[in-house]
């Protein structure tokens, strides 16, 4: 019974080693927040799209953005206000072309808000984080699109422009400088390419199990 248990345990551990998921991490960054140059509206019918690149087998699980928001209870910018309105949700999609082509993900997602700082124009620039069960993508370039943003006061929501390495566009203007964001996700560690390495791992595991079972 002990030998059979050891064999089954070894098989299970081997299968787990064949595909070990990594912890969620930044899989793409378009650079730091600017906060004082410009920003682009992502509600009232406006759609802003930015590209990002991933390695093969990357599962997207969230993103962070820098947004310009009007201070609470005040329409528009306010140089003396200290609290920000809250971005509650927005439609986020991942596509093969700018706001078009093949759609890999399209959902309304919710955000948690932090680190709001008032900029030179009287808007609060906030970090907005969302997590979701996104697609697993092949290696390549994709478009991340934001639209239909919602805030309690009904004011416009603006995505911070930072002119990072991404390509970007807006549905009325066309090509624009890109925006502040990171894409979060994980990838699966592939099986070892060297069969000898894989076998040596099994031998090592067997030795450990033998010490514990006998």
Description of the molecule:
The protein has about 210 residues and is an alpha+beta fold. It folds into two domains: about 1-20 and about 190-214; about 20-190, Jelly Rolls (Sandwich). It is built from two helices and 15 strands. Strands 1, 2, 3, 5, 8, 9, 10, 12 and 15 form a nine-stranded antiparallel beta sheet that branches. Strands 7-6-11-4-13-14 form a six-stranded antiparallel beta sheet, with no helix packed on it. Helix 1 packs antiparallel against helix 2 (about 195-214). The longest helix has 19 residues, at about 195-214. The radius of gyration is 23 Å and the shape is globular. It starts with a helix and ends with a helix. The model is unreliable at about 1-20 and about 190-214 (pLDDT under 50).
Outline of this structure?
The chain has helices at 2-18, 195-213; strands at 20-21, 25-29, 39-41, 48-54, 58-69, 89-97, 100-110, 112-118, 124-131, 136-137, 140-150, 158-160, 168-170, 174-175, 181-189. The protein has 214 residues and is α+β, with helices and mostly antiparallel strands.
